[in-house]
Amino acid sequence: MEKTSTTTLKNILIVIAIILAMVISFFLGRASVSTPEAQPLPNEQTTAATEPEAAQSQDERPQYSDSQEKPEILELLRAQPRREDGDPRAMGKVDAPVVMVAYEDFSCPMCTVFFTNVYPQLKALVDEGKLRIEFHDLTIFPNYGSDKAAHGARAAANQDKFWEYTETAYDMAGAGNHPTYDDAKVLEIAQAIGITDLDKFETDYKAPETAASVKEETDHAMMNIGITGTPFFIINDAVISGAQPVDYFINTIQRQLELAG
């Protein structure tokens, strides 16, 4: 995509994201989970109940995020899944009909909510071969050491322990505040998940290449896609911003399964 068209697309995303934030706030104002600072991709369409619009109350909430319609947005979304065999930061069949690309920050409280409340409920769809989950770094809270946590996750991935590391990190995070990470905390997580070669783990954790990979993935999400908040999810042709309720995720995945045939 040419630089001019990319810049134009990003500007469109930002404008529509602001409008969308207002719409989501209206519909989900009393939801139990909020999404501070999360900026969605454009035009996150949602479908409410099938009853006549006049009969819908203010408290009725969208049932799922529908597919994007603009060709340039669809092209952008469909370019994000890696679908690589043996990807240690992916879970599920490489040819699963639905791929959920998850943009996460280890110090994001709403990411903790997602991994606590939603992620465990999605594993059944992964086991059934319907869903593939791919983790992408978007370190927006480096002041809390989330970049260090991401480096540790990459080092754990090199020993096929990425998901154990990620689940343990979010489990240790607890609810409410931004979890904070330093070298000692990262090593504590590595020991907790049974990393067998701690020397290799520390070497990989501190390697410049590891930091560069995390930064590159973060920069791509921010500059090339226009995502500035976590958690954020691309689910085939749909997008979800924030730790929405479990049913919202499952309904969106089911909708994309239907469209995938």
What does it look like?
The chain is an alpha+beta fold. The protein is built from 9 helices and 7 strands, in the order αββαββαβαααααββα. A 5-stranded mixed sheet has the order 3-5-4-6-7. It has a two-stranded antiparallel sheet with strand order 1-2. It starts with a helix and ends with a helix. The model is unreliable at 1-9, 14-40 and 42-58 (pLDDT under 50).
Q: What topology emerges from the helices and strands here?
A:
Layout: H1 3-27, E1 46-47, E2 64-65, H2 71-78, E3 90-91, E4 98-104, H3 109-127, E5 131-137, H4 146-157, H5 162-173, H6 183-192, H7 198-206, H8 208-225, E6 232-235, E7 238-241, H9 246-260
Characteristics:
alpha+beta, 9 helices, 261 residues, globular, single chain, 5-stranded mixed sheet, two-stranded antiparallel sheet, 7 strands
- Tell me the structural class: alpha+beta
Poorly predicted runs? 1-9, 14-40, 42-58
> Assembly type of the shown chains?
single chain
| Largest sheet properties | 5 strands, mixed
Q: Helical percent range?
A: 40-55%
Order of helices and strands: HEEHEEHEHHHHHEEH
Strand order of the largest sheet: 3-5-4-6-7
Distance between the termini: 29 Å
Percentage of β-strand residues: 5-15%
Counted beta strands: 7
